[in-house]
Amino acid sequence: MYLRSVLVLACAALVKSQTCTDSSRIIVQWLAPLDNGCPRTGFSYCLTDLDSGTEFSCHTTNTFTYTSTGLSACTRYLIEVTTLGQVGYSNSSTERLNETTSASAIPDPVTGLQVTHLNTYDLSVRWTRPSNTNCDLSYMICWNDSGATDAEVCHDTGITSDSTQSINITALNSCTDYDIRVASVAGGTMSDNATDTVRTPGSARKYVRGNNASLRLSGVVASERG
């Protein structure tokens, strides 16, 4: 994606700049200022993440271009370019340009997937959004009986900005293995799946005997003593 922008550099010279922006980098190019009797030694290029307030280190260059890499997708950045004057001359005023990185071609997967039993027939699914993106994300949650892959059910959450998400899956069969898949979705593209397989509990009469019975995730019955 190419964006045409305008920067004002040394001695109020008006120059046109070309900016190339993708999901992880910003490339800024500018022309030399007009020769208005202002000797220069180079340019100072500074970058600030406007969403987090993080100020990155400034860089000095003698060229008319600079590339910032390793940036976060869907994030607003402030670019500041200053023409540096020779000894005995002051620097020109700093000129500013706002740019926003684009969404990644493929969003990162969710993290921290947890599936817990609510009761014999219901599960709670909880996950955390990718930490390295500010993009608008929705999530696709799918589940199916491990022995019947043609009976998969999926649910789309719609776009949400919450850092931690959860959904309850209800009316399942007891004592059945279920495959759970969660993927983040951005711009119609889906990430790799975070997955877990759990078994819903059996009836209390069948599986829980005595006072020391317990359950744990990703197993059937952890222990039982009667």
From TrEMBL:
Which residues belong to any copy of the Fibronectin type-III domain? 10-104, 109-203
Signal found in the keyword field: yes
Q: Which residues form the signal peptide?
A: 1-17
Q: Which residues form a coiled coil?
A: none
Q: Which GO terms describe its cellular component?
A: membrane
- Report keywords, A-Z: Signal
Zinc-finger recorded as keyword: no
The cross-references to InterPro entries, in alphabetical order and at most eight, read:
FN3_dom, FN3_sf, Ig-like_fold, RTP_Phos/Ushers
What is the name listed in the Swiss-Prot or TrEMBL entry for this protein? Answer: Fibronectin type-III domain-containing protein
